[in-house]
Specification:
Elements lengths: L20 H10 L4 E4 L8 H10 L3 E10 L17 E7 L2 H16 L2 E2 L1 E4 L1 H6 L4 E4 L6 H7 L3 H15 L4 E5 L5 H17 L3 E3 L11 H12 L21 H7 L4 H13 L29 H13 L13 E3 L5 E3 L15 E7 L8 E8 L2 E8 L6 H10 L3 E3 L11
Parallel strand pairs: 1-2, 2-5, 6-7, 7-8, 13-14
Antiparallel strand pairs: 2-3, 3-6, 4-5, 9-10, 11-12, 12-13
Helix pairs in contact: 5-6
Protein backbone atom coordinates (compact mmCIF):
# COMPACT_ATOMS: atom_id res chain seq x y z
CA UNK A 1 0.00 0.00 0.00
CA UNK A 2 1.43 3.36 -1.06
CA UNK A 3 -1.36 5.74 -0.09
CA UNK A 4 -2.87 7.08 3.13
CA UNK A 5 -5.65 9.63 3.56
CA UNK A 6 -4.17 12.75 5.17
CA UNK A 7 -7.00 15.26 4.71
CA UNK A 8 -10.06 13.87 6.47
CA UNK A 9 -13.04 15.49 8.15
CA UNK A 10 -15.17 13.47 10.54
CA UNK A 11 -18.48 14.06 12.25
CA UNK A 12 -16.56 16.43 14.54
CA UNK A 13 -16.31 18.97 11.73
CA UNK A 14 -19.74 19.91 12.98
CA UNK A 15 -22.47 20.17 10.34
CA UNK A 16 -19.77 19.92 7.67
CA UNK A 17 -18.52 16.34 7.93
CA UNK A 18 -20.73 13.25 8.09
CA UNK A 19 -17.82 10.80 8.11
CA UNK A 20 -18.33 8.84 11.33
CA UNK A 21 -15.09 7.76 12.97
CA UNK A 22 -16.00 4.10 13.41
CA UNK A 23 -17.18 3.79 9.79
CA UNK A 24 -14.13 5.67 8.53
CA UNK A 25 -11.70 3.37 10.34
CA UNK A 26 -13.57 0.30 9.07
CA UNK A 27 -13.43 1.67 5.53
CA UNK A 28 -9.68 2.33 5.41
CA UNK A 29 -9.09 -1.05 7.04
CA UNK A 30 -11.20 -2.74 4.35
CA UNK A 31 -9.25 -0.86 1.67
CA UNK A 32 -6.04 -2.37 2.98
CA UNK A 33 -4.60 0.91 4.25
CA UNK A 34 -2.27 0.93 7.23
CA UNK A 35 -2.78 4.53 8.32
CA UNK A 36 -5.25 7.38 8.17
CA UNK A 37 -5.55 10.91 9.46
CA UNK A 38 -8.11 13.05 11.21
CA UNK A 39 -8.02 16.77 10.28
CA UNK A 40 -11.26 18.38 11.39
CA UNK A 41 -11.90 22.07 10.83
CA UNK A 42 -10.24 24.07 13.59
CA UNK A 43 -10.90 21.51 16.35
CA UNK A 44 -9.54 18.32 17.88
CA UNK A 45 -12.77 17.05 19.46
CA UNK A 46 -12.58 13.70 17.71
CA UNK A 47 -8.89 12.94 18.17
CA UNK A 48 -9.18 10.62 21.18
CA UNK A 49 -12.12 8.65 19.73
CA UNK A 50 -10.25 8.28 16.46
CA UNK A 51 -6.99 7.33 18.18
CA UNK A 52 -8.67 4.56 20.15
CA UNK A 53 -10.69 3.23 17.20
CA UNK A 54 -7.68 3.24 14.87
CA UNK A 55 -5.37 1.54 17.35
CA UNK A 56 -7.98 -1.13 18.03
CA UNK A 57 -8.24 -1.80 14.28
CA UNK A 58 -4.46 -1.94 13.82
CA UNK A 59 -4.39 1.39 11.94
CA UNK A 60 -1.73 4.02 12.59
CA UNK A 61 -3.71 7.13 13.64
CA UNK A 62 -2.29 10.35 12.19
CA UNK A 63 -3.57 13.12 14.45
CA UNK A 64 -4.08 16.51 12.91
CA UNK A 65 -6.28 19.52 12.31
CA UNK A 66 -7.13 21.79 9.41
CA UNK A 67 -6.57 25.14 11.08
CA UNK A 68 -7.68 28.60 10.03
CA UNK A 69 -4.80 31.03 9.50
CA UNK A 70 -5.45 34.77 9.74
CA UNK A 71 -4.01 36.84 6.86
CA UNK A 72 -2.35 39.12 9.41
CA UNK A 73 -2.52 38.94 13.16
CA UNK A 74 -4.96 36.57 14.86
CA UNK A 75 -5.90 39.58 17.02
CA UNK A 76 -7.10 41.68 14.06
CA UNK A 77 -10.82 42.26 13.62
CA UNK A 78 -12.68 43.72 10.61
CA UNK A 79 -9.44 44.11 8.68
CA UNK A 80 -10.50 41.88 5.82
CA UNK A 81 -13.76 40.51 4.55
CA UNK A 82 -15.24 37.44 2.88
CA UNK A 83 -12.93 34.59 1.95
CA UNK A 84 -9.84 36.52 3.07
CA UNK A 85 -10.80 36.43 6.73
CA UNK A 86 -8.76 33.24 7.01
CA UNK A 87 -6.90 30.59 5.02
CA UNK A 88 -6.83 26.82 5.53
CA UNK A 89 -3.73 24.86 6.52
CA UNK A 90 -3.48 21.16 7.40
CA UNK A 91 -1.28 20.33 10.40
CA UNK A 92 -0.26 16.77 11.35
CA UNK A 93 1.45 15.72 14.58
CA UNK A 94 4.65 13.81 13.79
CA UNK A 95 5.34 12.89 17.43
CA UNK A 96 4.25 13.67 20.97
CA UNK A 97 5.95 17.06 20.87
CA UNK A 98 3.97 17.88 17.74
CA UNK A 99 0.76 16.63 19.35
CA UNK A 100 1.36 18.87 22.36
CA UNK A 101 2.11 21.83 20.10
CA UNK A 102 -0.94 21.12 17.94
CA UNK A 103 -3.15 21.31 21.02
CA UNK A 104 -1.57 24.65 21.91
CA UNK A 105 -2.11 25.98 18.38
CA UNK A 106 -5.78 24.96 18.30
CA UNK A 107 -6.36 26.39 21.79
CA UNK A 108 -4.79 29.71 20.78
CA UNK A 109 -7.22 29.88 17.89
CA UNK A 110 -10.20 29.76 20.23
CA UNK A 111 -8.84 31.77 23.14
CA UNK A 112 -7.09 34.56 21.23
CA UNK A 113 -7.98 34.45 17.55
CA UNK A 114 -11.69 33.68 17.29
CA UNK A 115 -13.28 35.81 14.61
CA UNK A 116 -15.93 33.89 12.65
CA UNK A 117 -13.57 30.92 13.04
CA UNK A 118 -10.85 29.97 15.56
CA UNK A 119 -7.88 31.57 13.77
CA UNK A 120 -4.16 31.36 14.39
CA UNK A 121 -1.35 33.29 12.73
CA UNK A 122 2.30 32.96 11.77
CA UNK A 123 3.40 34.03 15.24
CA UNK A 124 1.60 31.06 16.78
CA UNK A 125 2.75 28.65 14.07
CA UNK A 126 6.37 29.72 14.42
CA UNK A 127 6.26 29.36 18.19
CA UNK A 128 4.69 25.87 18.15
CA UNK A 129 5.99 24.43 14.87
CA UNK A 130 8.20 21.71 16.33
CA UNK A 131 7.06 18.17 15.60
CA UNK A 132 4.45 19.24 13.05
CA UNK A 133 4.12 18.45 9.35
CA UNK A 134 2.07 20.94 7.33
CA UNK A 135 0.14 20.59 4.05
CA UNK A 136 -0.98 23.58 1.99
CA UNK A 137 -4.62 22.40 2.13
CA UNK A 138 -7.43 22.90 -0.40
CA UNK A 139 -8.43 25.80 -2.66
CA UNK A 140 -8.95 27.80 0.55
CA UNK A 141 -5.24 27.49 1.40
CA UNK A 142 -3.17 30.64 1.04
CA UNK A 143 -0.92 29.19 -1.66
CA UNK A 144 -3.85 27.94 -3.73
CA UNK A 145 -5.88 31.10 -3.31
CA UNK A 146 -3.06 33.17 -4.75
CA UNK A 147 -2.71 30.74 -7.66
CA UNK A 148 -6.42 30.97 -8.47
CA UNK A 149 -5.98 34.74 -8.68
CA UNK A 150 -3.04 34.41 -11.04
CA UNK A 151 -0.55 35.57 -8.41
CA UNK A 152 2.09 32.88 -8.88
CA UNK A 153 5.07 34.70 -7.36
CA UNK A 154 3.06 35.67 -4.28
CA UNK A 155 1.94 32.06 -3.92
CA UNK A 156 5.54 30.86 -4.15
CA UNK A 157 6.63 33.30 -1.45
CA UNK A 158 3.84 31.98 0.81
CA UNK A 159 5.12 28.45 0.21
CA UNK A 160 8.64 29.51 1.15
CA UNK A 161 7.31 31.20 4.28
CA UNK A 162 5.60 28.01 5.44
CA UNK A 163 8.70 25.98 4.64
CA UNK A 164 10.82 28.34 6.73
CA UNK A 165 8.31 28.02 9.55
CA UNK A 166 8.03 24.24 9.68
CA UNK A 167 11.44 23.33 8.27
CA UNK A 168 12.70 21.65 5.12
CA UNK A 169 10.81 18.43 4.47
CA UNK A 170 7.99 19.36 6.86
CA UNK A 171 5.84 21.40 4.47
CA UNK A 172 4.15 19.91 1.38
CA UNK A 173 2.20 21.37 -1.54
CA UNK A 174 -1.18 19.67 -1.66
CA UNK A 175 -2.84 18.42 -4.86
CA UNK A 176 -6.59 17.77 -4.93
CA UNK A 177 -9.01 16.84 -7.70
CA UNK A 178 -12.74 16.77 -7.08
CA UNK A 179 -13.67 17.75 -10.61
CA UNK A 180 -13.49 21.48 -9.89
CA UNK A 181 -11.99 23.44 -12.82
CA UNK A 182 -9.91 25.67 -10.54
CA UNK A 183 -8.21 22.61 -9.07
CA UNK A 184 -6.86 21.51 -12.44
CA UNK A 185 -5.36 24.96 -12.98
CA UNK A 186 -3.92 25.06 -9.46
CA UNK A 187 -2.46 21.55 -9.71
CA UNK A 188 -0.45 22.45 -12.80
CA UNK A 189 0.91 25.51 -11.03
CA UNK A 190 1.77 23.43 -7.95
CA UNK A 191 3.73 20.98 -10.11
CA UNK A 192 5.74 23.87 -11.50
CA UNK A 193 6.21 25.36 -8.04
CA UNK A 194 7.46 22.07 -6.65
CA UNK A 195 10.09 21.85 -9.38
CA UNK A 196 11.23 25.44 -8.82
CA UNK A 197 11.31 25.38 -5.01
CA UNK A 198 12.11 21.77 -4.19
CA UNK A 199 9.05 21.60 -1.94
CA UNK A 200 7.53 18.14 -2.37
CA UNK A 201 3.97 17.37 -3.39
CA UNK A 202 1.29 15.36 -1.63
CA UNK A 203 -2.04 14.25 -3.12
CA UNK A 204 -5.14 14.10 -0.94
CA UNK A 205 -8.89 13.71 -1.16
CA UNK A 206 -10.82 16.24 0.92
CA UNK A 207 -12.90 13.61 2.73
CA UNK A 208 -16.19 14.80 4.23
CA UNK A 209 -18.21 11.57 4.11
CA UNK A 210 -17.34 7.90 4.10
CA UNK A 211 -18.89 6.39 0.95
CA UNK A 212 -19.83 7.77 -2.46
CA UNK A 213 -23.52 7.16 -1.77
CA UNK A 214 -23.32 9.48 1.27
CA UNK A 215 -23.13 12.56 -0.96
CA UNK A 216 -26.86 13.32 -0.82
CA UNK A 217 -27.24 13.01 2.98
CA UNK A 218 -24.14 15.17 3.31
CA UNK A 219 -25.75 17.80 1.09
CA UNK A 220 -28.72 17.86 3.47
CA UNK A 221 -26.29 18.33 6.36
CA UNK A 222 -24.84 21.38 4.62
CA UNK A 223 -28.33 22.84 4.30
CA UNK A 224 -28.82 22.41 8.04
CA UNK A 225 -25.53 24.22 8.63
CA UNK A 226 -26.31 27.16 6.37
CA UNK A 227 -30.06 27.41 6.94
CA UNK A 228 -30.82 26.73 3.27
CA UNK A 229 -33.13 24.41 1.34
CA UNK A 230 -32.02 21.80 -1.18
CA UNK A 231 -33.89 23.70 -3.89
CA UNK A 232 -32.04 26.96 -3.19
CA UNK A 233 -29.73 27.93 -6.03
CA UNK A 234 -27.31 30.17 -4.16
CA UNK A 235 -26.06 27.93 -1.38
CA UNK A 236 -22.97 26.05 -0.25
CA UNK A 237 -22.39 22.79 -2.16
CA UNK A 238 -19.76 20.08 -2.47
CA UNK A 239 -20.27 19.43 -6.16
CA UNK A 240 -19.53 16.16 -7.92
CA UNK A 241 -19.91 13.63 -5.10
CA UNK A 242 -16.14 13.08 -4.83
CA UNK A 243 -15.53 13.84 -1.16
CA UNK A 244 -15.51 10.26 0.13
CA UNK A 245 -12.84 7.80 1.32
CA UNK A 246 -11.32 6.68 -1.99
CA UNK A 247 -9.18 3.64 -2.62
CA UNK A 248 -5.53 3.81 -3.67
CA UNK A 249 -6.55 2.76 -7.19
CA UNK A 250 -9.06 5.61 -7.44
CA UNK A 251 -6.44 8.09 -6.30
CA UNK A 252 -3.94 6.78 -8.85
CA UNK A 253 -6.51 7.24 -11.60
CA UNK A 254 -6.88 10.88 -10.54
CA UNK A 255 -3.15 11.59 -10.34
CA UNK A 256 -1.33 9.43 -12.92
CA UNK A 257 1.01 12.39 -13.45
CA UNK A 258 1.91 12.69 -9.74
CA UNK A 259 2.43 9.18 -8.39
CA UNK A 260 5.22 10.42 -6.14
CA UNK A 261 2.70 12.75 -4.48
CA UNK A 262 0.59 9.70 -3.65
CA UNK A 263 3.58 7.80 -2.27
CA UNK A 264 4.45 10.80 -0.12
CA UNK A 265 1.17 10.35 1.77
CA UNK A 266 2.37 6.97 3.02
CA UNK A 267 5.83 8.33 3.80
CA UNK A 268 4.29 11.10 5.87
CA UNK A 269 1.98 8.67 7.67
CA UNK A 270 4.96 6.43 8.46
CA UNK A 271 6.68 9.41 10.10
CA UNK A 272 3.71 10.16 12.36
CA UNK A 273 3.60 8.28 15.65
CA UNK A 274 1.90 9.72 18.72
CA UNK A 275 1.60 7.75 21.95
CA UNK A 276 -1.26 8.79 24.24
CA UNK A 277 -1.24 7.34 27.76
CA UNK A 278 -4.63 6.68 29.32
CA UNK A 279 -5.55 6.00 32.93
CA UNK A 280 -2.87 8.29 34.34
CA UNK A 281 -3.74 11.66 35.86
CA UNK A 282 -1.91 14.43 34.05
CA UNK A 283 -1.08 17.48 36.16
CA UNK A 284 1.19 20.42 35.32
CA UNK A 285 4.54 20.56 37.05
CA UNK A 286 5.35 23.75 38.93
CA UNK A 287 8.97 24.29 39.89
CA UNK A 288 9.18 25.22 43.57
CA UNK A 289 11.08 28.40 44.52
CA UNK A 290 14.67 28.33 45.72
CA UNK A 291 15.03 26.94 49.22
CA UNK A 292 12.07 24.57 48.92
CA UNK A 293 11.84 20.97 47.81
CA UNK A 294 9.23 19.10 45.75
CA UNK A 295 8.78 16.36 48.32
CA UNK A 296 8.11 18.64 51.30
CA UNK A 297 4.78 19.99 52.53
CA UNK A 298 4.29 23.57 53.65
CA UNK A 299 1.38 24.25 55.97
CA UNK A 300 2.34 27.23 58.11
CA UNK A 301 1.14 30.69 57.20
CA UNK A 302 4.65 31.94 56.54
CA UNK A 303 5.66 28.94 54.44
CA UNK A 304 2.56 29.02 52.28
CA UNK A 305 2.73 32.76 51.82
CA UNK A 306 6.39 32.78 50.83
CA UNK A 307 5.77 29.90 48.47
CA UNK A 308 2.82 31.67 46.83
CA UNK A 309 4.67 34.96 46.46
CA UNK A 310 7.84 33.39 45.11
CA UNK A 311 5.86 31.28 42.69
CA UNK A 312 3.82 34.20 41.35
CA UNK A 313 6.85 36.44 41.03
CA UNK A 314 8.59 33.78 38.94
CA UNK A 315 5.34 33.30 36.98
CA UNK A 316 5.23 29.59 37.73
CA UNK A 317 1.71 30.08 39.04
CA UNK A 318 -0.41 32.47 37.04
CA UNK A 319 -3.91 33.10 35.76
CA UNK A 320 -5.42 30.86 38.47
CA UNK A 321 -9.10 31.68 38.96
CA UNK A 322 -10.78 32.57 42.24
CA UNK A 323 -14.22 32.31 43.81
CA UNK A 324 -14.30 34.98 46.58
CA UNK A 325 -14.46 38.68 45.89
CA UNK A 326 -11.16 40.51 46.22
CA UNK A 327 -10.10 44.09 45.67
CA UNK A 328 -6.99 45.41 43.97
CA UNK A 329 -6.07 49.10 44.26
CA UNK A 330 -3.97 50.94 41.73
CA UNK A 331 -1.57 53.72 42.67
CA UNK A 332 -4.24 56.39 42.11
CA UNK A 333 -6.52 54.73 44.65
CA UNK A 334 -8.93 53.33 42.05
CA UNK A 335 -10.55 50.02 42.91
CA UNK A 336 -10.41 47.04 40.56
CA UNK A 337 -12.32 43.95 41.63
CA UNK A 338 -12.21 40.27 40.82
CA UNK A 339 -15.61 38.91 39.87
CA UNK A 340 -17.27 36.03 41.65
CA UNK A 341 -17.03 33.67 38.71
CA UNK A 342 -14.12 31.90 37.14
CA UNK A 343 -12.65 34.89 35.36
CA UNK A 344 -9.77 37.23 35.96
CA UNK A 345 -10.20 40.96 36.42
CA UNK A 346 -13.47 42.35 35.13
CA UNK A 347 -11.49 45.44 34.19
CA UNK A 348 -9.04 43.91 31.74
CA UNK A 349 -7.38 47.27 31.11
CA UNK A 350 -5.79 47.43 34.55
CA UNK A 351 -2.04 47.91 34.04
CA UNK A 352 -1.12 45.23 36.57
CA UNK A 353 0.21 41.75 36.22
CA UNK A 354 -2.25 39.95 38.48
CA UNK A 355 -1.86 36.46 39.84
CA UNK A 356 -4.01 34.67 42.35
CA UNK A 357 -4.56 31.47 44.27
CA UNK A 358 -7.03 30.28 46.91
CA UNK A 359 -5.31 28.37 49.65
CA UNK A 360 -5.50 27.30 53.27
CA UNK A 361 -3.44 30.20 54.60
CA UNK A 362 -3.31 29.41 58.33
CA UNK A 363 -4.32 26.49 60.48
CA UNK A 364 -7.03 28.62 62.09
CA UNK A 365 -8.56 30.34 59.07
CA UNK A 366 -10.99 28.50 56.82
CA UNK A 367 -9.32 29.94 53.74
CA UNK A 368 -7.60 33.05 52.52
CA UNK A 369 -7.54 34.43 49.01
CA UNK A 370 -4.12 35.75 48.06
CA UNK A 371 -4.22 38.23 45.20
CA UNK A 372 -0.82 39.50 44.17
CA UNK A 373 -0.44 42.49 41.85
CA UNK A 374 2.74 44.14 40.69
CA UNK A 375 3.19 47.42 38.83
CA UNK A 376 6.40 49.38 38.37
CA UNK A 377 8.02 47.45 41.17
CA UNK A 378 5.20 48.23 43.64
CA UNK A 379 3.73 45.21 45.44
CA UNK A 380 0.13 45.09 46.65
CA UNK A 381 -1.57 42.14 48.28
CA UNK A 382 -5.30 41.92 48.94
CA UNK A 383 -6.72 39.50 51.49
CA UNK A 384 -10.19 38.01 51.83
CA UNK A 385 -10.53 35.76 54.86
CA UNK A 386 -12.98 33.04 55.74
CA UNK A 387 -11.59 32.55 59.23
CA UNK A 388 -11.51 34.35 62.56
CA UNK A 389 -10.81 38.07 62.66
CA UNK A 390 -8.17 37.77 65.37
CA UNK A 391 -6.03 35.60 63.12
CA UNK A 392 -5.66 38.31 60.52
CA UNK A 393 -3.23 40.53 62.33
CA UNK A 394 -0.44 38.03 62.82
CA UNK A 395 -0.71 36.95 59.23
CA UNK A 396 -0.81 40.55 58.03
CA UNK A 397 2.31 41.43 60.00
CA UNK A 398 4.16 38.63 58.22
CA UNK A 399 3.01 39.99 54.88
CA UNK A 400 4.15 43.49 55.70
CA UNK A 401 7.52 42.15 56.82
CA UNK A 402 7.82 40.73 53.32
CA UNK A 403 7.39 44.23 51.85
CA UNK A 404 3.73 44.20 50.79
CA UNK A 405 1.16 46.99 51.09
CA UNK A 406 -1.93 45.28 52.47
CA UNK A 407 -5.60 46.10 52.01
CA UNK A 408 -8.53 44.11 53.31
CA UNK A 409 -11.91 43.41 51.76
CA UNK A 410 -13.37 46.51 53.45
CA UNK A 411 -10.97 48.71 51.45
CA UNK A 412 -9.09 49.57 54.65
CA UNK A 413 -5.32 49.85 54.65
CA UNK A 414 -3.87 47.54 57.27
CA UNK A 415 -1.74 48.85 60.10
CA UNK A 416 -0.38 46.50 62.74
CA UNK A 417 0.30 47.73 66.24
CA UNK A 418 2.93 45.96 68.26
Amino acid sequence: MAFAHLHVHTEYSLLDGSNKIKEYVEKIKALGMTAGAITDHGVMYGVIDFYKAAREAGINPVLGCEVYVAPGSRLDREMVHGEDRYYHLVLLAENNTGYSNLMKIVSKGFVEGYYYKPRVDMEVLEKYHEGIIALSACLAGEVQRNLVRGMYEEAKEVAYRYERCFGKGNFFLELQDHGIPEQKLVNQQLLRMSQETGIELVATNDVHYTNAEDAEPHDILLCLQTGKKLADEDRMRYEGGQYYVKSEEEMKSLFPYALQALENTQKIADRCHVEIEFGVTKLPHFTVPDGYHDDEHYTTAEDMLKFAIAATQSQTICDITCQPLAIVYDEQGNVHSWDNGNKLLTDTTIPYEVYGMKTGFTDEAGFCFIGYAGMNGKKILTLVYGGEVENRYADTKKLMDLGFDIYDENHDYYTVEE
